[in-house]
Amino acid sequence: MLGRHDDAIDAYRSLVRRGAKRIAKGPCGEGLARARGLVADCHFRIAESLESLGRRNAALAAFETHLDLRGPGCQSIYRLRDLNLPNTARNNRRRTA
Q: pTM of this prediction?
């Protein structure tokens, strides 16, 4: 979008460090399931930025973390079928699932 991937990564990592419980209970908190979704989605956005910076291995790790955090009690804003996951991440998920 703006090409400020390093700034974006810093912002997303700040939210990840804050953690779902603190986000959920904060003044604008919308509950634990949405906060878990936000943290998972931060990993997805980190992966997108890392991919844009050419850091493919780190991007794949972030994609995997995003996928690992999803599930019951995690309300991501992204539908799995709409994610632009690298083929490597998809193949790894099929082998371990």
A: 0.84
